[in-house]
Design brief:
Layout lengths: L1 H19 L2 H16 L29 E4 L5 E5 L6 E2 L14 E3 L4 E2 L15 E3 L21 E3 L6 E3 L12 E3 L4 E3 L14 E3 L6 E2 L13 E3 L4 E5 L2 H6 L5 E3 L4 E4 L13 E3 L4 E2 L15 E3 L21 E3 L21 E3 L6 E2 L13 E3 L4 E5 L2 H4 L7 E3 L4 E5 L12 E3 L4 E5 L12 E3 L4 E4 L13 E3 L4 E2 L15 E3 L13
Parallel strand pairs: 2-4, 3-5, 4-6, 6-7, 7-9, 8-10, 9-11, 11-13, 12-14, 13-15, 14-16, 15-17, 16-18, 17-19, 19-20, 20-21, 21-23, 22-24, 23-25, 24-26, 25-27, 26-28, 27-29, 28-30, 29-31, 30-32, 31-33
Antiparallel strand pairs: 1-2
Bound molecules: 2-acetamido-2-deoxy-beta-D-glucopyranose (NAG) (12 copies).
Pfam families: LRR_1, LRR_14
Keywords: Glycoprotein, Leucine-rich repeat, Membrane, Repeat, Signal, Transmembrane, Transmembrane helix
Subcellular location: Membrane
Length: 505
């Protein structure tokens, strides 16, 4: 029964298939097969293209081959998607001239090498082209500038070099342009035109130098701009703020920008992510930063600022990530910081901050990662902080002047994995509640003034890998329960008897 049905379908299928085969279609199938046979199939983990065969009857029309995602009404291939197919080889043997109707082509996430064929410039109907995450070398063919219908161009994560061809700015319908992760140099600034549709632009991880390419100011629709990890120098251009009013995501991390943040930054009122870390920005952080009320991520870390954390930060109610580490700040922590109750990541480490943690910070109950190490902060780590910071995964208060006892509320940090309180002046006994921290991996309380005995509840810390109590004033012996700590590889509870002696002892 099944067999009869199968052969009926088979005959029907054959006659359809044959009547539809046109010379063009054969040319397309043959072009694909010729190319397939040049690929290094031995290196494929699973040979993805087994369906590509003229002897396979059901596979006879290339429209049904793996990766051929769509044919038009005359069975002419219009979409090829061979993303992540383990392809190893070049595109040199693939004759693109037989696919004039192609609208979509993806070869991303393979191991293709050699150059990007200039022949692609003939595919005048192409709307989508993704050659990302291969290892294409040499320059970007200028012919890609002929693809006037192109909306999405992704060449990211290859080894392309040379100038970005100015001809690419002919692509006036393109809204998504990703050339990140190559060795590309600045295009000819004069001949590179504005692009009126461009919305997303990734040029990060290349060799762009000198200034922010001025053509970027002629992209009125730009929402996303990533120029991180280049070698761009000079001041942050005021034009960036005044001409890109739709910008929501700005990433200039890890370049060599210098000078002050212009107050015109307030023009970027839609900005959600502002990442300016790892540059050479100086002056004070302008109060106006606090007027960007849609900010969710603010990274100014690793710059050369001085002066205060602006109190206007407290207006950023949507803020989730605030990174000011190592940026030359020398104020106290503004009370207003406690108004940013959506914060999950806060890093103020390696600055010259002084004074106590303001009480308002107890409201930061969403915090997951909090680092404020290597400052001159003082005062007590109050119980009302700990009882509210129950989402903390990492708490880093080391290298400060915190004093007073560790409150028993420390036991409420149920999710904590890294707890660093070392190099402070904490005193009193270690509360037994420390044994409640059932996710703890690393506990460092060294170089404090903690006294009395180690609580036996320490033995409950079955996930802990490292504990450091070095140079405190603990007395007594280790409780036998420490033998229950199954994961521990390092436990230092030695006292330093001679305060003057160097680290060798
Ligand atoms: C023939 O092509 C069909 C359809 O693509 C495929 O499912 C099948 O695995 C192929 N058979 C062989 C023997 O390659
Ligand atoms: C492609 O396969 C589908 C079923 O998967 C079938 O209905 C269709 O007729 C096939 N087309 C060609 C041209 O082989
Ligand atoms: C391209 O598609 C059109 C229909 O959209 C068709 O008439 C034409 O023959 C196709 N060209 C080729 C070379 O297959
Ligand atoms: C870059 O491409 C390589 C090779 O295809 C791939 O393994 C890697 O995951 C890609 N990286 C990114 C960030 O896409
Ligand atoms: C990419 O190709 C270049 C030149 O052949 C080679 O030096 C480099 O190691 C390759 N990179 C990867 C990630 O395979
Ligand atoms: C730059 O920042 C944007 C916006 O936050 C982000 O999506 C992108 O991944 C970042 N780029 C890199 C290279 O991390
Ligand atoms: C900030 O940097 C600019 C450019 O490097 C320099 O001219 C200026 O003197 C610096 N300002 C301060 C306050 O250091
Ligand atoms: C911070 O540094 C600036 C510039 O060096 C200085 O004028 C100011 O007095 C300092 N503020 C504090 C609180 O130390
Ligand atoms: C926190 O962010 C959400 C959106 O993610 C927003 O709806 C909420 O108002 C913010 N919280 C505060 C206190 O503004
Ligand atoms: C603890 O957090 C809650 C919710 O954010 C807040 O209402 C409360 O005032 C905080 N407690 C203290 C002592 O600030
Ligand atoms: C904050 O920055 C410091 C210095 O780079 C780093 O060591 C620490 O891990 C960061 N803290 C958190 C909580 O991410
Ligand atoms: C923790 O340790 C104490 C003392 O060793 C013990 O009495 C207690 O039952 C332990 N608690 C848990 C939850 O294991």
């Amino acid at each position: 029964m099944g067999r009869t049905l199968e052969s009926v379908i088979f005959i029907v299928f054959l006659s359809c298939a044959f009547s539809e085969i046109t010379v063009q279609k054969e040319a397309q199938a043959e072009a694909l097969l010729r190319w397939k046979n040049r690929l290094k199939s031995h290196s494929l983990t699973s040979w993805s293209l087994t369906s590509w065969s003229l002897t396979n009857v059901t596979g006879k029309s290339p429209c049904n081959w793996t990766g051929i995602h769509q044919c038009n009404e005359v069975n002419d291939i219009i979409k090829i998607n061979l993303a992540n197919s383990g392809l190893d080889g070049t595109l040199d043997q693939l004759d693109f001239s037989v696919f004039p109707n192609l609208t979509s082509l993806s070869f991303c996430f393979n191991n293709l090498v050699g150059s990007i064929p200039s022949q692609l410039g003939m595919l005048s109907r192409l709307v989508f082209l993704d050659m990302g995450s291969n290892n294409f070398t040499s320059t970007i063919p200028v012919q890609l500038g002929n693809l006037l219908e192109l909306q999405v161009l992704r060449l990211s994560n290859n080894s392309l070099n040379g100038q970005i061809p100015y001809q690419l700015s002919n692509l006036q319908k393109a809204w998504n342009f990703n050339l990140a992760g190559n060795y590309l140099l600045n295009p000819d600034h004069i001949r590179f035109k504005g692009m009126k549709s461009l919305t997303f632009l990734w040029l990060n991880y290349n060799y762009l130098d000198t200034e922010v390419p001025p053509f970027i100011f002629q992209y009125p629709k730009l929402i996303f701009l990533d120029l991180s990890e280049n070698i761009i120098t000079g001041p942050l251009p005021v034009q960036l703020a005044t001409s890109l009013k739709n910008l929501e995501f700005l990433n200039l991390t890890s370049n060599s920008f210098e000078g002050e943040i212009p107050v015109e930054i307030t023009h970027l009122s839609k900005l959600q992510h502002m990442r300016l870390g790892l540059n050479k920005l100086n002056g004070t952080i302008p109060y106006e930063v606090g007027l960007l009320s849609n900010l969710q991520i603010l990274e100014l870390n690793d710059n050369l600022f001085n002066g205060p954390i602006p109190s206007s930060i407290g207006k950023l109610k949507m803020l989730q990530t605030l990174n000011f580490q190592n940026s030359g700040l020398n104020s106290s922590i503004p009370y207003e910081l406690g108004f940013c109750t959506n914060l999950t990541f806060l890093n103020l480490s390696i600055n010259n901050l002084s004074g106590p943690l303001p009480k308002s910070m107890a409201s930061l109950s969403q915090l997951v990662d909090f680092g404020i190490s290597s400052n001159k902060l003082s005062g007590e780590v109050q119980a009302y902080f700990l009882s509210n910071w129950t989402n903390l995964n990492s708490l880093q208060l080391q290298h400060n002047n915190f004093s007073g006892a560790i409150p028993p509320e420390i036991g409420m940090l149920q999710k904590i994995t890294y707890l660093y309180l070392f190099d402070n002046q904490l005193l009193g006994s270690l509360p037994p509640e420390i044994g409640n921290l059932s996710n703890l991996i690393d506990l460092d309380l060294s170089n404090n003034l903690i006294t009395r005995s180690i609580p036996s509840s320490l033995g409950n810390l079955t996930t802990v890998v490292s504990i450091n109590f070095y140079n405190n004033q603990l007395s007594g012996t280790l409780p036998p329960e420490v033998g229950n700590m199954q994961s521990i590889t390092s436990l230092d509870y030695t006292r330093r008897f001679w305060p003057q002696c160097s680290t060798e002892c």
